[in-house]
Amino acid sequence: MERIYLDHAATSPTDPRVVEKMLPYLTENFGNPSSIHSFGRESRKWLDEARSLIAEEIGALHHEIVFTSGGTEADNMAIFGSSLARKSLGRHIITTKVEHHAVLHTCQKLEQMGFAITYLDVDRNGRITSKQVEEALQDDTILVTVMYGNNEVGTLQPIAEIGELLKDHQALFHTDAVQAFGFLPIDVKDSHIDMMSVSGHKLSGPKGTGFLYVNEKVKLTQILFGGEQERKRRAGTENVPGIVGLREAVFLLKQERQEKTTLYYRFKEIIIKVLQSEGVTFEVNGSMQDSLPHILNLYFPGVSVEALLVNLDMAGIAVSSGSACTAGSLLPSHVLSAMFGEQASQLTSSIRISFGLGNTEEQIKRAAEELAKIVNRLV
């Protein structure tokens, strides 16, 4: 039985072309990029090249890219670093109720430290409006952090509108773009984004890699202490093999973005048409228009999500009930709770399907047919 992996929003397999690029930096070119001898200079050269390519991809400057261990560290660095550096200007922060836990838990920690956090409600598609941000803004607001695209339902937020709103306010604008980067073209300057978090393993790059874009005018308080790497913003020897892999993943996505985006939207259509043709009762959680191409969240009334996940797994199909950061607990999704209410049936009868490297139309059709059979059996 062929196993079909449809949980790419949790993690995606590393592209073999990425692995091939990384291998020499695990064996031959092993120098510490902070060393001044030839071994170190060789590593530094590839570090600089990766930084330049990533900066160019998002319309940033070379020195505005800080390499991290992933999206969680990037979110923490942006939110803690900017809030602590700017607390003399105010202690008010705006975010949403559907952020990734790397943002929500960081904001909750800041609340314990005396900061005031406004958590914006979302509509039934999981979306906020720039008007909500405008109404929540205060003179002492120092940060607005809103994710680009949601990791559970795929909903896109009005990032450019929010950026335009904030460009003349003292508040900095941070966006968690872990799910959106690579699937959507992003220009941080055009969108007036001050900080942006990205993770490598969502892009078919290596785990343990990522970056934070930080506008050159933004000052961050250090949260890691040690050496003076990354222009004194992130202590610790850089993960050169991982960064080389991250660079290659970004390069490949840049070349293949349009093709993959078209393909993944096609996958959504296939699943929906198969479910409809098999008479399955279902609803799409979130928007089909303003959404990421690779995430589809479906609600099956009357079907237990635990039973559905187990039966799909037995059929060789891997999907999830929500964010991987709460995997194993099957706790109600905070995203669906914010969209539909804490007692809504969507919380116990919804699954997330997400596409990525290696998926084919044949796989998607088989998975949809199997899903339809299981749902009709469980109702």
From TrEMBL:
<comment type="similarity">
    <text>Belongs to the class-V pyridoxal-phosphate-dependent aminotransferase family. NifS/IscS subfamily.</text>
</comment>
<keyword id="KW-0411">Iron-sulfur</keyword>
<dbReference type="InterPro" id="IPR016454">
    <property type="entry name" value="Cysteine_dSase"/>
</dbReference>
<dbReference type="InterPro" id="IPR015424">
    <property type="entry name" value="PyrdxlP-dep_Trfase"/>
</dbReference>
<dbReference type="InterPro" id="IPR015421">
    <property type="entry name" value="PyrdxlP-dep_Trfase_major"/>
</dbReference>
<keyword id="KW-0808">Transferase</keyword>
<keyword id="KW-0479">Metal-binding</keyword>
<dbReference type="InterPro" id="IPR015422">
    <property type="entry name" value="PyrdxlP-dep_Trfase_small"/>
</dbReference>
<dbReference type="Pfam" id="PF00266">
    <property type="entry name" value="Aminotran_5"/>
</dbReference>
<dbReference type="InterPro" id="IPR002048">
    <property type="entry name" value="EF_hand_dom"/>
</dbReference>
<dbReference type="InterPro" id="IPR020578">
    <property type="entry name" value="Aminotrans_V_PyrdxlP_BS"/>
</dbReference>
<keyword id="KW-0663">Pyridoxal phosphate</keyword>
<protein>
    <recommendedName>
        <fullName>cysteine desulfurase</fullName>
        <ecNumber>2.8.1.7</ecNumber>
    </recommendedName>
</protein>
<keyword id="KW-0408">Iron</keyword>
<feature type="domain" description="EF-hand">
    <location>
        <begin position="108"/>
        <end position="143"/>
    </location>
</feature>
<dbReference type="InterPro" id="IPR000192">
    <property type="entry name" value="Aminotrans_V_dom"/>
</dbReference>
